[in-house]
Amino acid sequence: MLQLPRAPRPIHLRLMVCTPPTPRALRLAFQQTPPPNALAECSRVLKKSGQMKLLHREKEPASVFEGNRKNVLLSGKMQGGLGSVGTLSHAYVQHPPLRCDIPDIRGIFYDDANKFLIAPTADRILYWKITPSTPAGPPNSDPINDGPVLSVRYSLDQKAIGIQRSNHEVEFRNRETGETCNKKWRVDSETLLGFFWTDCPTYDVIFVKTSGLDLLAYEPQSNALRLVDSKKFNVSWYLYTHESRLIVLASGMQCTLFTGYQWGCQIAKVEMTVSKSEANSKPVLAADDVHIVTVYGRIYCLQLDRVSMTLNMYRFYRDAVVHQGTLPTYSSRIAVSAVDNIIMVHQIDAKVVILYDIFMDSYAPISAPLPLLVRRLPSNNRQATQSSDNQSSAYGGTLYGEGWNFLNPDLVCDVENGLLWKLHLDLEAIAASTSDAPSVLEFLQRRKSDLSMVKTLSLAIVRTVILERRPITMVAKAMDVVLDSYSRLMKMGSDLPGVRRTSEQNLQSGVQPVVNPDSSSGDGNRPVQSNSGVEHGIANHTANVDRTLLNTSSDSDDITNASGGANQEMSGLQASDVAERKPLVVGKDSRPLASGTSMQHGTHVANVAVSPSEMFESVFVLVEDEMMGDPAYLVSIIMEFLRSVSKAGLKAPPNLYVMTTTLLAHSNRYPEIMLFVSNKILEPSKELAMQLMELGRQNSPTRKLGVDMLRERGLHQDYVSALLQDGYYLEALRYARKYKVITVPPALFLEEAVATNSAKNLAAVLSFFTEFVPTFKTTSDYARYRHILSEMI
Where is this region: Disordered (predicted)? Predict the structure, then answer.
């Protein structure tokens, strides 16, 4: 479960209150039928007030994929959104939904602890297990006694069913034996508001009554309940989510006094603020105006103030509830969802949704308000888009209709039509709506809902900013974001290739220590074995590179500080966040439905993290041909990439060094090749040595660098072959004898000796192989070259 941290002491609250720029005319328009230009008006007001993040385009947008940007932006058209042609959306519900429109059902309930969608009939309970890939098959069922059903919840071990029959009675049924027991309360004393199962070690079920809480243990052997504890106080209504294990109890004349409980322990009290429409009015806060969301492991309570048209955000700690900020609303009715750690605020009257990413404590929306679309599966070959008039007929209901019930955290149940939808983020559309590559990359690295799309978009963005020849500082920041994310995830226990470990780590069990991602605050908290040659070599010798050729006006130190500043800003936030709260404890049953928090770290790394090798294959290899007209720019980008790799403690692929030398040689910059090799900016490898030898056909000193690199790397056979190619067969012979190189055929040495037309040299080579290789005399080469020697004498 998510264990609440203690509030920081002292509290340095960073309030980012957004004054809602909602003119009275706009409010009235949204409270009634939304005007045709509601979307444009809402977006205009947000932009005017400066509340919307700059994730929209001000000028010609930068493409995310190569090709026509318009095709990328029209994601609804490309992927089958059921909106008008060209409709943009950053969120959608997937079609087809789960259908539960079975005749004679007595309501639809959702058990968020077990992820069950439940539809009781007169004598049975039908239920569907909601999974990331929601099945469309028939439901499971359990027999029950006839009677009214107000709510249904299965126990966490799914061995018992709790059925609320009235405001004073709950029936418990053992699924194995079929035995039942009833828990009743006196009608004239108290009213049962609801109940739910919990995974607390001391009790199993909690009853919420108007007089307080009853905590009971369920004993399946005897099918009985035993009272463990009781909390007495007045309760008007309550909210609970299994994901947070948090109960919010409302009390008081206006229901504004909130008491929080987690695992039956009181954590904090807070009095909500409700604006008055008139001086003497006392508005009562309803349960529909309060929402519990869990994002990034933090528990928030969002409270709608209908008079001021604002959404107040509170964060729960173990000993305090802290007001974090205020979000504007543009509708008298809203709903709140949490999808992949993104808060969705649905403006129901305006039929638009606004997205918030509060990871950086910013309460500005990440995009303009856009409608929610119904999107078909990609495999569906039916018409991709339909007019907005046909949205209702597409599934027999209305978007944001009266029957829509938003379920925690990311489901929508259309009760009138018996449909269950799942909310999704359109990461492609969000990425296409910004030209700030580092920001959108940071956003993508925090997403876990569509792992393959995250990786595809990340690589495409880096590739695009290079092709568009963006400033080197921006490209460097973008690569820092991707590689830092890979390095951070690698330190969470995964064993992917490409991580360079320290000697202390190698002495241990060989597994990287698990590190909370919130606690990894920069390079200082993680063991990194950096490539000192790359770090210092680039810094010392970049000044010697012609800055005009590199097509940049900023020096290397500026790039380092710029990219480092971005990382320090994020790591500083994470460090302060860790300082104010204890690490969260997540139990096996605290996983939100398909929101990504239930995934294993290794799975996330394998699917999302972009390794240096993947950067090379999917970015540099693909842009090399198009950048050959300006190789200096690509070389400077590679230098920044090597800096990022070294800073993250990773290892660059050897073929990247080969590409660098090829690009430098293409511009006849051989002195820089020698500079980079001698200062270990280009790490020695067999691939690089072979490339240097190949380039040596136009520049002999470069070939010597390659030959020397073979010797330094201990590649004896390749070094001997290189000496033979250069005609140094006697030196190659001495080297082969010293290091016992027996894999090079003797015929190669003998041919070089014959080419010199020297009987003395040929005799020396024959004598060497006769002594060094015992079986040489039995070979045909011995007889042949013995005959040649006799003719030469």
Answer: 497-534, 550-573
